[in-house]
Amino acid sequence: MAIFARIVPTRAGCVMIVETLTSFLDATSLGWASLLGLAAIIFVGLPHGAFDGAVAMALGWAGKPWMMLAFIMGYVTMAALVVIFWLAFPDLALLAFLGISLVHFGLGDAIGGTATEQAIQTIAHGGMVIVGISLFHKAEVDIIYSYLTGGDTTIIWVCVEQAPFVIGLALCIYLAMAIARPALRPRLFEIACLGFIFYMLPPLAGFAFYFCMVHTPRHLFRIWRQLSRQNFSPRSMLIMAAGFSCASWLAGGIALWMSPPSMSADAHLLRVVFIGLAALTVPHMILVDGLFRRHHAPIQGTTDTMPITDIPFKSDSGQDNKPQDNKPQGHNNA
Q1: How does it sit in the membrane (predicted)?
Q2: Which among 109, 179, 231, 306 would be 20 to 30 A from 91, CA to CA?
Q3: What's the chain's average pLDDT?
Q4: Binding site annotation covers 284?
Q5: Is 268 a known ligand-binding residue?
Q6: pLDDT per residue as tens digits for the range 200-211
């Protein structure tokens, strides 16, 4: 635990972050709803990835201090490479970020089924978040995308505007699946509700609602329940999460403090938040959607509400999952 205690920022560091944020709030032209959304993304949504340290423990990387240190160094290195890649190829980086975010959000919202059913759910859920928000508020989102790419967004919109055809087809198939499988109906209804919310709220506020009120709680519930079953100490998980969160906030505060004079406050604030989010999403997705799901098959493609039956189903790993006689038969793992 000493490793994580040392990365919590000092009081002076926290004061620097607060002062920097205050100066940006004075200079920004973003509306209050967008600012509240950004604050929620930073202080509520971002910490859900801070439990990646606990996930690393579950994967056996905390047996010795050097193993956890190697995990942290690898995580930070991968995040740094994402930032470097973004600065060198912003258009390609933004497209990649939108694509992996669609998959990551979709996987988090999908429930059990065959590989094809998982893919349909992933496209529908993730597509509503990424493409839905983009097209519902194209003018506002275009400004955000231009800040993130530093210029022309034509290639971004060429790709985004083709996506509704695929997402629409996925939703039609999803509807047919939900007619046959009642367990899918609540999640399909969720897509409709989120679509309405995304349409009504400004884009940053709409994304923050999903990120903080849907994605983060769902992710934390799955991770927390799985790790608790492996007898991991809640105190240890919270200490690690606090350490990673504070380190991320400190890095963001430093990036804001280093704002170039030629860049507007809005542009720099949004670049720090979303490029930083992209940098953390790549290792987070590899860890959670790749390694952790593979090592903890019961989490994959299930839902908190779908009851276990005696009928086997296929998870997204392609393996049959059947209820065991020595396990409770109440509810699936999320």
Answers
A1: Multi-pass membrane protein
A2: 109
A3: 80
A4: no
A5: no
A6: 999 999 999 999
